[in-house]
Amino acid sequence: MCYAAGGIQPSVLRPNERGMCYAVAHPSVCAFREAASAGAVASEVTTASVLGRGLQEGPSESAPQASPSGKTRLLKLLRAGGAGLDIAAIAAALRQGGKLNHAKDYTVLISAYRRQQRWREALELLAEIQLRRLELALPTCSAALSACERSGRWEQAAALLDAIENRLGMELDVVVCSALVSANAKAGRWAEALAALASMRGRQLLPNEVSFGAAIAACEQSGQWKPALALLIDFQQSRAASEGVCSLPALSAALSACEKAAKWRQALGLLSCMTAPRGPGLDIVACSAAVSACEKAGKWEFGLELLVGMIPRRLLPGVIAGNAAVSACHVGCQWERALSILRQAFEWRFALDVVSYSAAASACGQGGSWISALGLATEMLRTTVRPNTVTRNALVSGCEASGQWERALDLLGAHFGPDCRRDVLTINAGISACDRGSHWRGALLLLSELRPRASAWPALPALTPSIVCFNSALSACARCGRWRRVLGVVNELREVGLEPDIISFNSAAGALERGGQWSRALRMLEEAQRSCSRRLGPQAAALGVALGACERDGAARASQAAGLLDALRSGASSQLREVLEPR
């Protein structure tokens, strides 16, 4: 059946009103434009050599033509494909030789463009077929649709499918509809991919493995684990009459969706489906995703069990599974097990990277083994692996948590390389170390690095201070009784757009109490009481230090102390003001 040129209109091939028109003005114009681009070598036979053998002199000296044997060589070269194949030059030779007269020849050209993901040229050839009123078949349209699918051009794929069905009157098949599902999946449009899959059933088409796999992959990329599992069940039920077994790519995609959502139970359930008698079996990717799901859910026991269970199946854990297991040990405070995994890395044949060392160092620091964490840093320096910011943060936090504040400050000032810069977590760990060592000057110096200083630090990114940084600095100043510095930090906290929390109020009130500033302590307490709207409210500790300030001022403040106790029982801000400013 011959489909006329009016079947696929140029407007259908446009992505939108502002897009490019893909209709071809004239075949010769298109040929000269395409032939302007230079090609590379395809396999061992260059395009130029094949064109040389495929061209012969015709009646006119300026019009080389392709002989029948030359045409066969050219089409064979197109079918062989190759990333550097000059498809435009081959098409120009076929046109000039008058041998591009069948839609099946165009199909070979479009398929070659599809392999190179050149969807524009594929649509231009399809429009050229319509302009020349050649017989158009579904395989040719399917090749053009597949070119759009490989490039993730879902708009062009949807428009082309609509033209094939409604304007050309062709009956769609599973391959064409699956290409639309895959195009939406590659564009990250999981809902549209599911809609395209559902439309196949409306056309009385049974989705195949490719259709379900593309839809499940779309859900996986968007973190939609529930639709992914529902599609997997639907896929298995649809194949119950034949094989009743899900493919490994579909299972792996669903398992990856569960991994991203930290759904470890569902991930382990999918692993059991893979190891079923008729299952596809396990691979390293699926096992690594399951270990990562356990790590994200804090189930380090199951993650380690999966990692060890890979060895009898002759699946050597790769760096992804190994790092996930080490991170799981960090979450579970199992620093000795984390070091054990690192020692098994050589036997399991996976190379340690900066993620491996950083996760193990974090586990050691969290477990109080700061010596082991520093040993890992020394080991890193003897290898080609270079520490980064995460590594420094793990070392500084580990020493700070173990009370080794001097070593933490040494690590803070050490130079680990260009990839190891300070961030908010680094500075916060340093301020906490200064707090533990009652080094209030160092805490304020580190806090000053969070201020905008583009001229002094041109290579550093902007650092946004957090309330945790300010609270650590407040605590350091309060330990040393520097109440004036405390008030300065509180004011600076407000200047950067933050609000003090109950920890800030307690530290400030404690510093004022120790400095005998009972009036300021009471005002700080009143401000904390007004924070009841944010469900903070003053704690008994803050009221206690304020009462201590009243007591130190002598018996003359006994009435204020009694009123303060009443305010503590009732939690009323108005009573605090009456105590602070008695009539």
From TrEMBL:
Which portions of this protein are annotated as coiled-coil regions?
none
Question: Can you tell which superkingdom this protein's organism belongs to?
Answer: Eukaryota
Q: Name one GO molecular function term.
A: mRNA binding
Instruction: Write down the InterPro entries for this protein, in alphabetical order.
Output: PPR_rpt, TPR-like_helical_dom_sf
Q: Which PROSITE patterns match?
A: PPR
PPR repeat copies, ranges:
102-136, 173-207, 353-387, 466-500
* Protein name per Swiss-Prot or TrEMBL: Pentatricopeptide repeat-containing protein, chloroplastic
Give the species this sequence originates from: Polarella glacialis
Taxonomy of the source species: Eukaryota, Sar, Alveolata, Dinophyceae, Suessiales
